[in-house]
Please model this.
Amino acid sequence: MKIYFHIILYLFLICNSVLADFSFIVFGDWGKGGRYFQTDVGSQMAEWSEKNNAKFIISTGDNFYNDGVQSTEDSSWTLSFENIYWQQSLFIPWYVTLGNHDYHGIVQAQIDYSKMSNRWNMPSRYYSQTFLVDDSTTALFVFLDTSPLALSDPEAKKFTENVFKFDNKVQLRWLDSILSSSKAQWKFVSGHHPVYSGGYHGGQIEMQKLIKPILEKNNVQAYFCGHDHDMQYLKSGKINYIVSGAGAKPRVCEDTEFTYFYMGGTAGFFAATLTSKKLYGAFIDSEGNQLYKLAFGR
Model:
């Protein structure tokens, strides 16, 4: 009887330790064919993922420079994705958003690649996914298509698709509906363009006018983005803004309104561990150095 008791106790502890270990990675602006610091960042992501049992990876867009991909057979899939992120610890689900450079190519090809890859997930231009953090806590992750929204961005003039014809009200209504109807204790939204940023592009006025009110209304805890090739942590009101766009070729960055941390000229990624009550995060550079730690509750 004692043996059975210890076996049951052991299994209980194992199951609960797995549930408690809910970690993930956020990074963006990476598809450079292995050039600059892309390979180095990928190696550090693999190490962190293995040590922390990462559940998935969020890409904040600009997955393929300079002009997206033309098909599911495009060589960029091999040169910028499969050959770079080859480690076993990176063969976990990737939840991918579209960036402005992805709109230089055929966006549908990135959606279609989801059917060919065991890890690439982009079922549509915008979508959501809910996860079980532990036996009583769920987390909703929403993935936006921000390029049709941020049309003041000069990059919009280079799009191969006429994003000006898109009905943004449809995506905005969908976002509000998904967030308001969710019973999840944690709510996170990811997109390419920043709401606030001290980077090269800076905050996008459309994101502040269209997206921020919906995030605030629905008690979203954090917004993840890229576009600016740096790492930043900003906070406005109750929303935490994480800029993680230093996946390959970093740019300069500066302090701005709402800034708690910023790092320009350094490649890296954001790593997070989620519990029932708190998110613990860290920015990690391409050499594995921990640059800044943060934590916030729900």
